[in-house]
Design goal:
325 residues, alpha/beta, D-Maltodextrin-Binding Protein, domain 2, 2 domains, four-stranded antiparallel sheet
Length: 325
């Protein structure tokens, strides 16, 4: 059965909550909103990928401070992109705002929601001064000469989750064997992808047999199998400020660390989000980490794959979050 293409996060969430699909790949903060804001009976069962996102800007912009008085696009209010962007803005004395009319002040940055596929054209026509989003839309702007990466999100929050696997509680309870097979498949796919990066780029590209994405192999190679000299160039430009972290542009690791979920909830509380987000005011980070995540299946799958060391991370189900803006 071939995958069905859904073009927006809103469509994906609606399809999942209405029961049209059983398993979804969601931005990690969306799952916080879905479970605690919308009371969706669903759980995070694994992470999909780490890092794999960046802040891309017009070529003439050389610092975060230069975004003052300009507009920046984000993919969704509940996204790691929004969280990291606002941390960067605040660190540089800028205030995130949402203005539908009028220009932002010199110390403000106007945030707009935009589908990732619209971001590159919007930057090309200078509708926005930049955008923060998952790959390969940053790489696409680079290769087209439209923009440059100002900062990678994984260089701000080390090994952060971007998207996660979200499943209905009823499936986890009533179909545990099937659920285990789903998670096993996700984990095996991550192991294979880490070991076959260039082949993965080809398979996902429009040059591949199934044309899973509209992107060229060259764009996906820049993300999955970048040239060795890319890192040195990003260190020189400041897009990478922590080369000692040895972050891949995108990486894969399935275990949902409780420390990450706790820190994510803490940071969402201080992040500008449009719409009703009152549920965050009383949401306890430690409770959220326990209630949102069901790690039974992924633990078994990880151990069967050889432990977390198979994914290039320390062999422990606990860690400390490292965030340096």
């Amino acid at each position: 059965e071939k995958p069905v293409l859904l073009r927006s996060w809103a469509q994906i969430v609606e399809a999942f909550i209405s029961g049209q699909v059983n398993v979804v790949h969601l931005l990690s903060p969306i799952t916080v909103w879905a479970r605690f804001g919308s009371k969706a009976p669903a759980k995070v069962v694994a992470w999909n990928h780490m890092a794999g996102s960046g802040l891309t800007v017009l070529p003439e912009i050389n610092s975060v401070k230069e975004l003052g008085g300009k507009t920046v696009a984000i993919p969704f209010w509940y996204s790691i992109h929004n969280v990291v962007l606002q941390a960067l803005l605040k660190e540089n004395g800028l205030t995130p705002v949402t203005k539908r009319t009028g220009a932002p002040a010199a110390n403000e940055v106007n945030l707009v929601i935009m589908a990732p596929s619209d971001m590159v054209p919007a930057l090309a026509t200078k509708q926005v001064a930049g955008y923060i989003v998952a790959e390969p839309f940053n790489a696409a702007a680079e290769l087209q000469g439209i923009g440059k990466v100002l900062r990678f999100t994984g260089d701000v929050w080390k090994d952060h989750a971007c998207c996660v696997v979200f499943m209905h509680e009823r499936d986890l309870t009533e179909r545990p064997e099937w659920s285990q097979k789903v998670v096993n498949a996700m984990v095996k796919a991550q192991v294979w992808t880490r070991e076959h990066r260039a082949e993965t780029a080809f398979l996902l590209s429009k040059d591949g047999p199934n044309k899973y994405t509209p992107h060229t192999q060259a764009v996906l190679n820049k993300v999955l199998a970048p040239a060795p000299e890319d890192v040195a160039a990003y260190v020189a430009s400041g897009a990478i400020r922590h080369p000692d972290w040895r972050e891949n542009r995108i990486d894969f690791q399935p275990y949902p660390y409780a420390s990450y979920t706790e820190e994510l909830v803490r940071r969402l509380k201080g992040t500008l989000i449009e719409g009703d987000h009152a549920f965050l005011d009383t949401l306890d980070p430690a409770f959220a980490a326990k209630d949102l995540v069901d790690d039974r299946f992924v633990k078994k799958a990880v151990l069967a794959a050889g432990g977390l060391k198979a994914f290039g991370v320390p062999d422990s189900f606990e860690r400390q979050e490292v965030i340096v803006v």
